Amino acid sequence: MASKLVAEYKEYLADIAVKAMLTVAEKTGKTYKVDVDDVKVEKKTGESLGDTSLINGVVLDKEVTHSGMPKRIGKSQNRIA
């Protein structure tokens, strides 16, 4: 967060990082246990740091290989046939 490239967005990115860790944290008594591997940081070429967002769930970044492939799957489509 001390990098010149990140300095402008450090508070915004820190807030997202804390939310991500708290989302996957397991509370045991008065303490929290977090496995950092439960959070994945994914870079998208061409996007700015200000476009960074926290996505709760699973993100599949796959090219369309067939015209019949769905482009988006929502909560109502939570089963794979």
Word description of this protein:
19% of the residues lie in helices and 7% in strands. A hairpin with a 2-residue loop joins β1 and β2. The longest helix has 15 residues. The chain starts with 9 loop residues before the first helix and ends in a 48-residue tail after the last strand. The relative contact order is 0.14.
Q: What descriptors fit this protein?
A:
single chain, about 80 residues, alpha+beta, two-stranded antiparallel sheet, 1 helix, about 20% helix
Shape by Cα distribution: flat
Structural class comes to alpha+beta
The major β-sheet equals: 2 strands, antiparallel
Q: Which segments are poorly predicted (pLDDT under 50) over 5 or more consecutive residues?
A: none
Q: What fraction of residues sit in β-strands?
A: 5-15%
How many strands appear in the DSSP assignment?
Answer: 2
| Number of helices in the DSSP assignment | 1
Provide the gyration radius in Å: 17 Å
What is the straight-line distance between the termini?
Answer: 43 Å
Order of helices and strands: HEE
Percentage of residues assigned to helices: 10-25%
Question: Would you tell me the overall average pLDDT?
Answer: 82
Strand numbers in spatial order across the main sheet:
1-2
Strand-helix topology:
Blueprint: H1 10-24, E1 26-28, E2 31-33
Antiparallel strand pairs: 1-2
What would you say about this model in short?
The protein is α+β, with helices and mostly antiparallel strands and 81 residues long. 19% of the residues lie in helices and 7% in strands. The chain has a two-stranded antiparallel sheet.
